Each structure stands twice: as structure tokens, then as C-alpha cells.
Amino acid sequence: ADGKLLWWYPAGAQVRGGLVGRKDGGVIMGVMDGAVLAVVPPDANGQAAPDHPMASASKGVRRMGRRRVGPLLPLPDGGFVVAGADGVVRAVGGDGWPVWTLAAGRERLGALVQHGEDLYFSDNRGSLLCLRDGRLRFRLRLDRLPLTDPALLSSAAGVRILVGSAEGRVWAVTPQGRVAWFHAGANAVSRAPVALGNKLALVVMGDEVAGVDPSGNELWSHKLPAGVVAGPVAWAGGAAVADGLGGLHLISAAGAVTWTRDLGSPALDLRASLDGGAIWAATTAGRILAHARDGQPLVALSPLASPTRLVPLASGALLVASRGG
After folding, report:
1. Which pLDDT score, from 0 to 100, does residue 242 have?
2. Which residue from 204, 222, 281, 205 is spatially nearest to 246, judged by alpha carbons?
3. Contact by Cβ (8 Å): 35, 61
4. For 70, what's the count of Cα atoms within 13 Å in the CB-facing half-sphere?
5. Can you tell me the distance from the alpha carbon of 76 to that of 63, in angstroms, rounded to the nearest whole number?
6. CA 198, CA 189: separation in Å to the nearest integer?
7. Which residues of the chain have pLDDT under 50?
8. Residue 56: what pLDDT?
9. What CA dihedral angle connects 300, 252, 192 and 96, to 10 degrees?
């Protein structure tokens, strides 16, 4: 949290999928081209951590095929589920061994979200899919173009799975696989919607951020310079979003801009700390910056390698993946 380097690990190739910080022993899993790594960081005294099943099996590497796999979804038992560019969803247990595999198609699959026993994700052909226990519950074709990653919005009307499309539509689907409503806009929806509590979802439409209520009504919209390059991230009672000119904005649930800060260059990644006290940004200039809820700067540093992905950890530290692996 204070910007000091705690440890580093040579992954051997660029981390292009996702990173997950584990709760049981600080094991970090990074996704690369066709491989998943499990890394056990040293303890507070710099000593090597004890062996962990995920780190000891096959030297901590799980080969997930020859094509790039997507973001990880951690499971309560310490394992994870990952959807790949080869159209296959794979679940790995806490001991590092495969649990189930499902071929959902041949298209690239997006990130997974979980609600109860169900896993939701989109493919590259305009469909929303739902899995339970490694079996396909439904495949719902919504659009002719690829969908965004899904998001969950829980309200008085129930849980809705939200996805957007390049046609400018936002779809709300029930857990039973039925369309509850859709919102049609003029610009493409380029990023996964983000829920703010149970009364609002933020949707990026072109160079605008719009607030949509649980019934699909657009309440407000705010245009950003040069479009949205990172976020939105639910944080500080609103959402943090970065524009293409290097601006970092905090937008309230009512659509007002609470504050704006200059990052110096466009952001590559934007993440909120787990305690909600800071928003972290990695920029194209290779800098890592943190701002407090009131917009005051907390940390500004330039690491040795260009940062590409950030993962806040429960300890307050920040895991940084670099372009060089």
C-alpha cells in the first residue's frame, strides 16, 4: 500500500488473461498463453512459504491448451474456473487437478460471473450461456454481434444478468434464461455493465457512461473526452472511470462528476482496493497511481517494467503484472 516492492516472480511470458489473489495462503495464479501458474509468495520475513497443493503439483503449472485462456473465476475450495479462446470451459480444484471440462463451442469465451451454483458467460457469436456443475443449462442467442462480459444486478425485481452488444443494446436476462428487458442506445456497448448497489447499472456506450435503472430506463448519461479506456469500477458510492486523454473521474450514482484527476497518460487498468479506500491505475507511461476517495493522491511510482494488470490483495498490497512477464 505504501509503494514498496514486496516480491516478484518471473512468469516467463506476458500475463495476458487474469490474476487472482487467494485468501488461504496468498497463492497467486496468473494466466498466460495456454498455461495457469500458481505462485506462493514469501512470508513477511522473506522466507519461502510452505508447500501448497497448487504450487507443488507439476511445479505449479496447469496447461490449459495451446490457445490463450481468459480471466479466472476463483472457487470457494481454492480452485478456479476459466473460459478459453478455444471455446472450452475448465474447472480446476483446490488441489490443482481438473474437475470438469465443457466444450461450449469453438468461439472465444468471455469472463465468467457466478450467482449461486450457476456460471454465466458470453461467447463471440452473440449468445449468453449458463453452466451448472459442468453442464450447460441454457444458451440464449441475443445478438448477431459479440456480447460484452456479463454482470449481475440484484434488485427488488430479482437478479438480472446484464450484457451489452456492439449494436448498442443492453439485455437483462433472468436466471431462468428469459429476457426481462433490453435497452437500445445509439452507440456500441464496449464494456461489461457495472452494478451500483441494487438500483443502478452503469453502461459504457461509445464515449458516454450512462446510468440505467433495474427496469431498463436510462436515467442519465455523461460524455467523456476521447472515450472510455478503463473502468467503470464501482467505488466510493459511485464509479471510477478513465478517459482516453489521461483523466480519472469519479461519477456519482446520480450522474454528477464528483472529481477529476490527471493521470498523465491513458490508463491501461483500473482497480479499487479491497477495503474501498483507494483506486489504483496503471498507465501507458508505465506509472502506477493511487487516489483516495476524496481524489487526493496516495501513491505514484514507476516500476521497472510496464504494468498491464493490477490485482489488489486482502493484505493491502497490490499485485502488478508487467508486459514482459
Report:
1. 95
2. 281
3. yes
4. 24
5. 22
6. 21
7. 24-25, 46, 48, 50-60
8. 44
9. 60
